[in-house]
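Subject: Sanity check before I submit

Could someone independently write out the structure tokens for this chain? I want to compare against mine line by line before I put it in a report. The sequence has 236 residues.
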Amino acid sequence: MIRDGEIAGAGEMDEAALLGLRSERLNRRSFLFGSAASLGALGLAGCATTDDLVHREAAKLYGPVPEKKFPIPAVDVSKIDPKYYRRTVRYDTREAPGTIIIDAANYYVYRVEGDGNATRYGANVPRKGFLWNGDAYVGRKAEWATWTPPKEMIVRQPEAAKYAAGMPGGLDNPLGARTLYLYQNGKYTVCTIYSTSDPESIGRGVTSGCTGLLTQDMLDLYERTPIKTKVILLPA
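---
Independent answer below. Compare away.
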């Protein structure tokens, strides 16, 4: 190996050789500097914020579901407040696992899991004038249900009259992919927990007595909810 002092006294080395060696050293320095810069850039590129990670996980959770009767599109999670994403939370209650609790005041639906935990879903809820509370139960379940507007709705919204005989199931149907029908004392309350494809409705009071979950959330709740499941509607 030739050191700097040796280069200075090496009369036999021609100018081209000296230039070549200097060039090699410059290239080596450039390589080292460039590598450090590249590693720094990679580090910055891989530095994701908590919000980024939450949105990525939500995008997976609310991704497309193509294998259903009517392929379900992905939800635009950017249109939902992250606090309404589905998650497991601490929830102390004496209610049995499987019980559904609707907290309309805070736009949440809980499914009690036991051991102080619950699955929490963001929801849309009845608007003012249509809120109600008390105990109910799931008296019926349906996939891609036919929607028939109540007579009271047709009076309020005459445009719904064209569906008086029923609107077939599908992506445009207001009940969506899955529906849980709520009963009290053996009678249908005319209210449901249904699936919605409108992310901007979550966290709002928009319905005439029903409670809506994003379709991907409703698929999860529906599969784990048998007939006769207790439903509690908290005062709003």
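---
OP: Matches mine. For the report I'm noting this point. Residues 1-46 have pLDDT under 50 and may be disordered.
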